[in-house]
């Protein structure tokens, strides 16, 4: 990605959160910027790392089925960027999330507060 194709994005987090992110980025041998960009994109696309949640039902033991999807996305001879892979492998997560949020709001189980910039759970937990 060329420098003219990028812009600065800032966020403010508690020092312990920054330290945790930096440690995780170091573990993955990534810069903090690359780590945050990847995690935001992955979060937006509904990727789940580790655990059983993200696996597919027909995946072989020890695998998540993701390997086959990655290899399929890379079936040509050309290079594919990280962003293109994320987009290719993400499916319809954003649509499903939108529908779920709409449903939960209609049931008055969550509320969206534009002033706070997000959603909050309502009622008993």
Report on the architecture of this protein.
It is a single chain. 46% of the residues lie in helices and 6% in strands. The protein is mainly alpha-helical and 125 residues long. The chain has 2 domains: 13-49 and 65-90, no CATH class; 92-125, no CATH class. A two-stranded antiparallel ribbon has the order 1-2. Helix 1 crosses helix 2. The radius of gyration is 18 Å and the shape is extended.
SS-based structural class?
A: mainly alpha
Rg result: 18 Å
Question: Strands of the largest sheet, in order across it?
Answer: 1-2
Helical run tally: 5
What summary fits the major beta sheet?
A: 2 strands, antiparallel
Distance between the termini: 44 Å
**Fraction of residues in helix:** 40-55%
Mean pLDDT: 76
- What portion of the residues fall into strands of 2 or more residues? 5-15%
Q: What count of domains describes the coordinates?
A: 2
Q: Unreliable stretches, pLDDT < 50, 5 or more residues? A: 49-62
The string of secondary-structure elements, in order, is: HHHHHEE
- Tertiary shape: extended
By DSSP, the count of extended strands is 2
InterPro entries: DUF5805
Pfam families: DUF5805
Biased composition (Basic and acidic residues): 106-119
Biased composition (Gly residues): 48-65
Write the layout of secondary structure elements.
Blueprint (H helix, E strand, L loop, with lengths): L14 H13 L4 H14 L20 H8 L8 H8 L3 H14 L3 E4 L4 E4 L4
Antiparallel strand pairs: 1-2
Helix pairs in contact: 1-2, 2-4
TL;DR of this structure?
With 125 residues, the protein is mainly α. Helix content is 46%, strand content 6%.
